[in-house]
Amino acid sequence: MSFMYRYILKRAWKITWKNKWLWVFGLFAATLGNGGSINILINGLDNVQMQASFLANLKILFSSSTIGEAGNLISQFFQNLNIYYTFLFILIIIAFIVILYLAITTQGALLISIYNIYKNKQAGLKRGFEVGKRKFWSIFAANLSGKLLVYLTFFILSIPFLFLYLKYNNILWQLVMLVVGFIVFVPFAVIISFLVKYAVLYLVVENLTFMESAKKAWILFKNNWLVSLEIAVILFVINIVAAAVVIFSYFFIAMPFIALVYLSFQMGIEFMFWIGIIGGSGLLLVVVFLLGSILSTYQSAVWVLVFNQLNESVMISKIQRLAAKLSSIFVKRI
């Protein structure tokens, strides 16, 4: 790992650990999956696998009365909708809107706060939240555009194979869909995730418009795609290691609750069982939320520092340096 990579990773951790108030932003921002683009790659692989079953499910859908039955069920649902379910439905919609608003706003708040801390400028919860609110619609548009592009590509890729599958009823088209999806869809989804990440940074850090941010994000990624991918891989490995350590630590800390559940079965004492279950579940929620907020903050800090470095100077990828060393060794031997 290069000196620059080590510096960025260490400095990002220092910012994350010394400014724990950032974890508040990180907790909500984590719901957008800001972490790493390798996560997008894994989701993309899942989507490619889904495409094969997607073709089969659509075939069943079009060759049966499923559409009509679904329409009848929806009609019955609204006919039987009472005040209680209407109120519950409205509450769910309101909760979704509130969570979405907080996730988008805190994404911008987290990024600008980390940037200001790195640049030794004033930073705080209120100041960061104000920037997040001001840039809400632009950040929302960037995230939404990325999602729409990915799923639109998924849909477009599926259409020709859907017709071929429906016409010939041959599983071969499912296999072809898997190969094409892996070659086209997965890289496209990863590229879009990088573009959204850099566009949001341009929105909040340089206060650009949506279109200006999109254009500059493309140029930045195009010139530094290998560095971006290497950073994403490094963060993915850090995520795996951190998750493994936390899971092991959780089971160690939760041993008293596990023991209570075990003893409740041996002694037939019901309240011990519920104490163990509730205590263990509560501890698990705390661990999950804490780990999610810390990792979200740390990964955001890494991307802010990478973004700053790429805009201020040149970062050479590890693969490029290794290739240069190997070529120089080869030339010397000749």
Describe this structure in words.
The protein has one domain (3-323). Helix 5 (83-118) crosses helix 8 (172-205) and helix 7 packs antiparallel against helix 8. It contains 13 helices and no strands. The protein has helices at residues 3-18, 22-29, 37-62, 66-79, 83-118, 125-134, 136-168, 172-205, 210-223, 225-253, 255-267, 270-312, 318-333. 31% of the residues are buried. The longest helix is centred in the C-terminal third of the chain and has 43 residues, at 270-312.
Low-confidence stretches: 35-42
Amino- and carboxy-terminal Cα gap: 28 Å
- Radius of gyration from the alpha-carbon trace, in angstroms: 24 Å
Question: What's the average pLDDT?
Answer: 80
What's the structural domain tally? 1
How many beta-strand elements? 0
Based on CA inertia axes, which overall geometry fits?
globular
Which structural class do the helices and strands define? mainly alpha
Q: Count every helix, treating DSSP H or I runs of 4 or more residues as helices.
A: 13
Helix content: over 70%
Please outline the helices and strands.
Blueprint: H1 3-18, H2 22-29, H3 37-62, H4 66-79, H5 83-118, H6 125-134, H7 136-168, H8 172-205, H9 210-223, H10 225-253, H11 255-267, H12 270-312, H13 318-333
Features:
single chain; 334 residues; mainly alpha; globular
In short:
The protein is mainly α and 334 residues long.
